[in-house]
Write a structure and sequence with these properties.
single chain, 244 residues, mainly alpha, 12 helices
Length: 244
């Protein structure tokens, strides 16, 4: 009996290892990498980056996407700077494509690590529970697409949180990947377009305006998409209210 208990304990620790590694690296990165993944570092190394891109375009794309994936997967500081770099090096269209694909891959790695570690067990416990927890889980299950898109579209939801919650409530990986990819496109294009104009910003000795996403002409359409994503939830709520 003790051997079975010990084996189960080891398996439990093994399941938690991926998310534990991510959290450990994230903590170390938050302390040590701030100066290396910053706007100042991009400004000081811009000529080297452009020269490398011009001489080795495909390796530059692969290296950039690999670094972006690592930044997102381990929740390292510098995701915004990475998005700017994508626009600065590859332009708005290609840069947005590389940024969104890399961010989706990185987010999926966190999702898989969390689901493997504790997401499946928590989801099963929530399904087996009663009362408020069960009702919350059922509400999320009924409106998964809308909730997933809202978490990606609303700028105030931390990206790391939006990767963990779906794993906890048992969202299928296909649904997570699709909603992540589509949901981060609006914000991704905004930041990438800012990065595409960094040449002029550098020339003037200024810093990029990362608050541009909150300006009315940018935030308005994003909030419109949020309202569209929330529409199925509202309709279900209204129908439920009529049935009561």
């Amino acid at each position: 009996m003790s051997d079975m208990t010990e084996t189960g304990r080891k398996r439990g620790l093994g399941r938690l290892l991926p998310i534990a590694v991510i959290l450990t690296v994230a903590g170390i990165g938050a302390v040590t990498l701030g100066d290396y993944l910053s706007f100042e570092a991009l400004r000081d190394n811009r000529e080297v980056l452009l020269a490398f891109r011009d001489a080795n375009y495909v390796p530059a794309v692969l290296a950039f996407m690999g670094i972006y994936i690592v930044i997102v997967a381990f929740s390292l500081p510098g995701a915004a700077v990475a998005s700017l770099t994508g626009g600065f090096m590859f332009g708005t269209v290609l840069g947005s494509t590389f940024n969104v694909v890399a961010a989706t891959i990185g987010a999926t790695l966190i999702f898989l690590a969390a689901r493997h570690g504790f997401g499946e067990r928590l989801s099963e416990k929530m399904d087996a529970s009663e009362g408020r927890v069960k009702r919350m889980k059922d509400a999320l299950d009924e409106n998964q697409w809308s909730m997933l898109f809202l978490m990606r579209l609303v700028p105030v939801v931390p990206f790391f949180v939006a990767n963990l919650l779906p794993a906890i409530v048992g969202v299928p990986i296909r649904r997570f990947v699709i909603s992540t990819f589509i949901g981060i496109i609006p914000g991704g294009v905004v930041f990438t377009s800012v990065g595409a104009g960094l040449g002029e910003v550098f020339a003037q000795g200024e810093v990029p305006n990362l608050g541009v996403i909150f300006e009315p002409h940018i935030l308005g359409p994003i909030l419109g998409l949020c309202a569209l994503a929330a529409l199925p939830i509202v309709i279900k709520a209204l129908r439920g209210g009529k049935d009561i």
